[in-house]
Structure formats: C-alpha cells, structure tokens
Write a structure and sequence with these properties.
Elements (H helix, E strand, L loop, with lengths): L9 E4 L5 E4 L4 H15 L11 E3 L2 E3 L9 E4 L6 H4 L10 H8 L5 E7 H5 L11 H16 L3 E8 L19 H11 L6 E4 L8 H6 L6 E2 L4 E2 L5 H10 L6 E4 L22 E8 L7 H12 L4 E7 L10 H12 L3 E4 L21 H13 L20 H8 L33 E3 L2 E3 L5
Parallel strand pairs: 5-6, 5-14, 6-7, 7-8, 11-12, 12-13, 13-14
Antiparallel strand pairs: 1-2, 3-4, 9-10, 15-16
Helix pairs in contact: 6-8, 6-12
Length: about 450
Amino acid sequence: MTNKQELPNIHLSTKAGAVYRVDRGKGAMLLALALGLALALTPPAFAAPQGLHVVGKRLLDGRGRVVQFHGVNRSGTEYACIQGWGIFDGPSDAASVRAIASWHVNVVRIPLNEDCWLGINGVDPAYGGPAYRKAIAEYVRLLHANGLYAELSLMFGAPGENEATYQNAAPDADHSPAFWASLATTFADDHAVVLAPWGEPTVDADCFLAGGDCGATWGPANVPYTSAGAQQAVDVMRQAGYTGPIAIPGIRYANDLTGWLSHRPRDPRRQLIAEAHIYGKTGCDTTDCLNATLAPVAARVPLIFGETGESYDGSDCGSGYVKRFLRWADAHRVGYAAWAWDAWGDCHALIADYAGTPHAGYGAAVRAHYARTKANALPLPRGRLRSHAPSSRKETLRSLGAMRKSSSELTPRRQPGYRRRRGLGPGPGKTECALDSTRWRNWPAS
C-alpha cells in the first residue's frame, strides 16, 4: 500500500481550462474534487441523431446531408375546427399531397389550434380532441410517405375559456404548455418533423423568452393574460421526449430577429432553429434589412422563413418581393415555406385549385423558382416510417405534470360570436388589419 507521503504531485487540466496542482498528502481528496468538477463541466452525452437534426448553422438529415427547406404552408387546420365546419380547408388526401410534392417541395408547415388539439373551450368533438390529433398525425404520415418533412406550429391560442379564434400576442400559460407536451409526446419518435411552439409573437423579446404578466392581451378589449415563454416550451417538449429540432420565431410577428441570438432559449440538445416571417410591405422587406438583421443569425444557427409571401396584407398578387426573398434565402442557405397552399382566390393563395395550378403571378413565380432550384431541396430519405400515436387528453395533462390548471378546469364551453372566415391579412382567420409601421393588429370577427 502506498504511503501518503509517497504520492506524487499531479497537474490536472479540467474542461474549463484550469490546472490544479495536487500536493502530497492531499491527493485523494483533491483528485476526487477535480474529477468531479471535470465531470460536471462535461456536456451531457446524447444518442446519435436518427433523422433531421442541427449541426452548427446547418440542418442535416439522417445521412448527414444539408437540408434546405423549400416548402409551403397548408393553412386551414388553425381555423376550420374552431369555426365548427371541419379540420382541413380543402382536401387532405394522397392526391392533394402528391400535387404539393409536384412543385418540388420538401416540407409542409401545418398551423395548429391549441383548443382543437386539446379538445377544450367548446370545440365540436368531431373536429377537436382525439379526432383532430388523429387527423394531423395521419396527414403528417402521408406527407412523409411522399418524401416531405413537416413543421407543426402552434398558431391559434387563447387564455382561459376564450375560444382560440385568432393568433394572439404570445402563448398562454393556461393551455399552451399542455399543447406543447401533447404535441411533443405525439411526435417524439418522428425524426422528420420540426416543432414550433408559436408563430408570430407581438410581445417583446424578454416576455417571449420568459413568459409571465408582461404585455400579452386578449381580444378587442385588450384584457391582460399570463403568457408562457419559449424557454418553458423547450423544457416541456424535451421533458415529453421530443429530441428533434424546435423552431423559435423572432418578435414583431416573427419579422424582427435582431435580438434572437441574445434571447434564444437554452436547449441542452442544441437543436434550435431560428424562424422569420418575411413578407413584402413590412418592416423588413429589403435586401439591406435582411443582410443586417437575418444574416448574422443565419451565420450561427439554421434559419427558415416559416412564412413568406408577396405582401402581408394580400394587396399584391405579383412576384417582385417574393423573388427577392427567395434569392436571398438561397444565397444564405436559408429554408423557406411560402404562404399558402390554399385555393382562396386572393393574393395570399399560391394555387387556383388543389391539383396545383398556380394562382396569379405570385403562385407562378414560386413554382418556377422551386423548379429551378429543385436540386437544393433534398426530399425526406425513404425508409421505415414511424407511426404516430396521438396522446389522449389524460396523457397530455399527465405529461405536463405541473400544469397550472387541472383537467376539471378545462371544461369545454361554447361561446357565441364566431363565423366562418378565410384568409384575410397576414394569415387566414385574421379579419381586421390596420398597418402601423411594421405592426398589424387582428381581432376575431364578431
């Protein structure tokens, strides 16, 4: 047995770069402390990614190839259910998905409604709860079968017993965490999706990150409510078992990413994507603005234009703005999803019908661009598809654990005062749009 006076001096380097000299007679204790410090400073080890994942500033597939999204938004699932007449606006069958794929698209963004997903606040059971979750999961599986990735984004939410009839300022603490937990549980084994906890925040960056009573209001009376933050969203999704990429939007309707790098949530898996919504006639629609505010973000993390289009208010069916945006995105390896694959007959619509006929100059320009750049839009690699088991409402509440409201407090209640409406403003279901510099305010129809 070695005598303690015979222990040699040891110089030990730690992950933090400090060097510790272990003196004779104190070796065992200090060596244990130093090794403990080194282990504490070592990042946690995770299993090798099986599909879509982030490495540095790139989004890669399971084979290690760079994935640049060329996609479309399939609007309808955020508003049809809450308006009580369906889940999708238009077809959601295999033929309709093949029409989308024929544009050389490799991703579809699907806006979601938290009331419909959770089956609360008076949603018709035919279009909410298990029926809604099953329809979304089956649609995502159909997309994958046709070589398409999916982004699932919470768009319509509402605090308390209010119906989620429009996109408000920020996620609500009453229901959004339960939605995030259930969504993450449902797609935990799907390695071909991106989950997005919110679409277009209008609170400031501090509030969107941390949540709280910090500026979010509901309805035309501007009733304050407690918001849930992006950090909570990441934590809840990871705790629920989802390990894939999470898209975090900028503020001011996702049009401002100037504070994104300093206000991004902590993610131990380092799988965050920055998301911007870029339209013509907004505060950031010039090349100079894109270079100044988005290029620094794209140099650090993957960036996607979760929504992009010719004009935020549907006032222009041309293609001058959208051509500029797509060229800039390609030059910076930024992904994008054009708004919207819906046959509304207005300037928001990419298509004239669900067979994929382009609508106006806007739709024709987007299709032509996708055809020219199809080599950059790698499809989802073929392989065995994971099945999605939509979580039950009971499982949703259990997975959240510390949810502020119990299931008995989430009693469905029908509220009057909504009517069927379609894509007005920067997204469907938004009916009163007043442009104020770079901001617009939208209220549900009465």
